[in-house]
Amino acid sequence: MEVELTSTFSPQLALLIALRVLGLVAIAPGFSSRVLPWKFRGAFTALVTLLLLPSQQGNSLPSDSIEWAWWGVREVLIGFALGITIRVFVASAQWAGQLIGNTVGLAQGETTEETEANGAPLVRLMAATGIAVYFAVGGHRQLMAALLESYEYFPIGPHNWPRELWPGIVR
Fold it and tell me: Is-contact 74 23, C-beta < 8 A?
C-alpha cells in the first residue's frame, strides 16, 4: 500500500489546531501538572498538532485579523471545555480526600505554609490516585479520541453548530 503526502503544510491551520490542543493541555489532569515542564507540554502540543494537521486539510481560514482573534479564542475555549470535563473528576477525588481528612481529623496539622500551599497529605494522595486511575483506564487515550472527535462537532471554519447538539445543551 502506497501513501502519498500531497497536502501542503499550512502554518495558519497548524496554529488554530495548536490553540485547541494548548487549551486542552493547560487544564486536563496529568498534562497540566506542575511536575511537567512547559517544554514538554510545548513538544506534546507540537506533536499532537502535527498528527491532527492532515485530518484538517481543506478547512477554510479566516481572512482578517478580527476573525483570526475570534477563531483563536474559540479554539482555546473548545480545548478548555475538553480539559475541564476531565478535571471535574479529578477535583472530585481531591474534594473527597479533603472531606475524609477533615472528618477523620487529619486536617488538624495543616497550619504551615507548605501544607496550605500543597494541601493535606490525604488530599494529595486522593488526587494522585484519581490521576493514576485516569491513566490506568485509558483516560488519556479517550481524551485524545475526544480531541479528534471534537473536530467533527466543532470544525475549524465558519461555525455551524450541529442541530442535534442544542437539545443536549438545553437539557
Answer: no
Rounded Cα distance between 5 and 50, Å, is 13
Residue 145 reports pLDDT greater than 60:
yes
- DSSP per-residue string spanning 78-123: HHHHHHHHHHHHHHHHHHHHHHHHHHHTGGGGTTSHHHHHH--HHH
Question: Percent helix, strand and coil across the chain, each rounded to 5?
Answer: 70, 0, 30
Answering whether pTM is above 0.85, one says: no
> Is the pLDDT at 146 greater than 90, yes or no?
no
Which residues are within 8 A (CB) of 25 and not within 5 positions of it... i.e. 6 or more apart? 31, 32, 41, 44, 45, 79, 83
Q: pLDDT band at residue 7, thresholds of 50, 70 and 90?
A: low
Residue 21's pLDDT band, with cuts at 50, 70 and 90, is very high
What is the four-CA torsion angle of 30, 32, 34, 37, rounded to 10 degrees?
Answer: 100
Q: What is the CA radius of gyration of the chain?
A: 20
C-alpha cell at 138: 485509558
